Amino acid sequence: MQIIQINNLTKRFPMGKGEFTALKGINLTFGKGEFAGLIGPSGSGKTTLLNIIGSLDVPSDGEAMVLGNSIGKLNSKQAAQLRKENLGFIFQSYNLLQVHTVYENVEFPLLLLNHSAAERKKMVLDALEWVGLTDKIKSKPPQLSGGECQRVAIARAMVKRPSLVLADEPTANLDAANSHNVLQTMEKLNRELETTFIFATHDEKVINYLRRKIFLLDGRVDNDEIVKSN
């Protein structure tokens, strides 16, 4: 089942008196349940493409269809609705609310949706069980390790069971052991819940877990390869 279709996508940004073309005629499709990565050095366009897929930005030309929505045609309210209901985001800086507990951080996305308190409680507990943090429910981010903070961020992204999770350099602030723990957690959720994961990364630790590797260079797709499972 195809959930993303990108056709001849171009993205330009103003720069001085001219402009910079970050993406140049990208054509890609993603199916349900993929564990894929946009790989490339800084400036290759991977974060720009991830932001457009996540409706945080819009194409200059071409089209990005995400879950049946043409990103460039959505108004701000429609884009926010798409993110709220169907997308999860994981960033390298965690973006947790420091004065709130782990439980409250994970519950936050559900407060924007129409769930009862009992439904929210079950969904939060399920999400924390997925990432192995049920014993940290009352802790606050300053009391957690970097790996634990990133697992809270994963639980927050997954709590509403989104169709698509976008992860921008999710292991950049983690050591090797915590990186592998976090990646194994995401891989497990991908397989068990069939959630599509798309990463933007140049971290070899992440790249080794991917089942599809899309290499970007100077705003173009340089190579797109499926990794054969053993």
Summarize the structure in words:
The protein has 230 residues and is an alpha/beta fold. The protein has a single domain (34-58, 79-226), classed as P-loop containing nucleotide triphosphate hydrolases (Rossmann fold, 3-Layer(aba) Sandwich), CATH 3.40.50.300. Helices cover 34% and strands 30% of the residues. The chain is built from seven helices and ten strands. It has helices at 46-53, 76-86, 102-111, 117-130, 146-158, 176-193, 204-207; strands spanning 2-15, 18-31, 35-39, 61-66, 69-70, 87-91, 164-168, 196-201, 212-217, 220-226. The strands form two sheets. Strands 6-7-8-3-9-10 form a six-stranded mixed sheet, sandwiched between helices. Strands 2-1-4-5 form a four-stranded antiparallel sheet, covered by helices on one side. A hairpin with a 2-residue loop joins strand 4 (61-66) and strand 5 (69-70). The protein is globular, with a radius of gyration of 18 Å. The two termini are 23 Å apart. The mean pLDDT is 94.
